[in-house]
Amino acid sequence: MESLIANPNVSHYHTHFLLVGFSGITEHRGLLFIPFLLVYLHVLLSNSVLIYRILVDTTLQSPMYHLISLLFLVNLSCTTTFMPKFLLGLAFELNQITLDDCLVQMWFIYVIVTFESTVILLMALDRYVAICKPLRYHHIMTNRFLTQLTLASLARSVLLMTPIVYLDSTVKFCKSYVILNFVCENMGLLKLACGDISRVQAIGLVVRMVITVVDGCLLLLSYLTILHTTMFLLKQSRNKALNTCSSHIIVALMIYASSVLSALIYRLETSVSVDIQNLTSAIYFLLPATINPVIYGVRVKEIWISLQKMFGYKEGVNQNAHNMGHNNN
């Protein structure tokens, strides 16, 4: 591995690369196959089951649950863009990837991750309207309006991320053909570039900062407004409103915290080992997809009751329905 990095072939520009995540434990990378396989299977099964329940259960047909199912779909899509390739690399050392395939993977990952941030914003908007404008909720959050917002969010993600990947496609790579990560991402690929890449790096940084700052500020403003509104509600209504938002807030904090952690680790690359960088990437890409189904499946009582129905726990369903009120939609 060290010889590949120290003595790259510079007689031509590279069009094929090796994705080598966790290179510090090269001889034992195969041991990572089982835990990562189990994580991926959990992501596939848990997110798919919850999407299915939201689609078929007539009690889960409000905009809030549609947005939650959209978040689960994002989880599935993001992990599936890179996990099969990563698992094959761990099990059979099939680590080679072409530049075109690498750019395609990067584009899908970046579009999906950006779309995820917007979905979190839409969930905050839904709760804002439900709590701050309850009498107008069903007039505002119609299926048509929700579809329009979803398509606009997807278009925003494509428009923001496509220039970054396009600029990467114009760069020549000659320093090495070893990408010390298990996914193709902008900063890792640019480390292998020849010539001046400051413009590409600057544009990538600006876009990422705009997404993080703008989305983060809008999210914070939404929940501060909701919190201010709940201060004037009766205790029971206030508790219901806050309980409804708590799962969304936990998920949002987890996603943004893992994003900031991953960005900081990469900026400190000279003092942080490559394996730590890979670990933070794994947390960033896999933690939300792994934890989101647990948070929503357990904390959102209507989804929990629906899961109990699915597995035939009728007695538990009746007890839950008796002891708990309904969330505001």
CATH superfamily, by name, is: Rhodopsin 7-helix transmembrane proteins
Share in β-strands = under 5%
CA radius of gyration is: 22 Å
The description of the largest β-sheet is: 3 strands, mixed
Strand adjacency order, main sheet: 2-1-3
Distance between the termini: 55 Å
Low-pLDDT segments: 1-10, 324-329
- Which term fits the overall shape? globular
Strand segment count:
3
Question: What does it look like?
Answer:
The structure is a single chain. With 329 residues, the chain is mainly α. It has one domain (2-323): Rhodopsin 7-helix transmembrane proteins (Rhopdopsin 7-helix transmembrane proteins, Up-down Bundle). The chain has 12 helices and 3 strands; from the N terminus they run αβααβαααβαααααα. Helix 2 (33-56) runs antiparallel to helix 3, helix 3 runs antiparallel to helix 10 and helix 6 (143-169) runs antiparallel to helix 8 (198-230). The longest helix is centred in the middle third of the chain and has 34 residues, at 99-132. The radius of gyration is 22 Å and the shape is globular. The N and C termini lie far apart (55 Å).
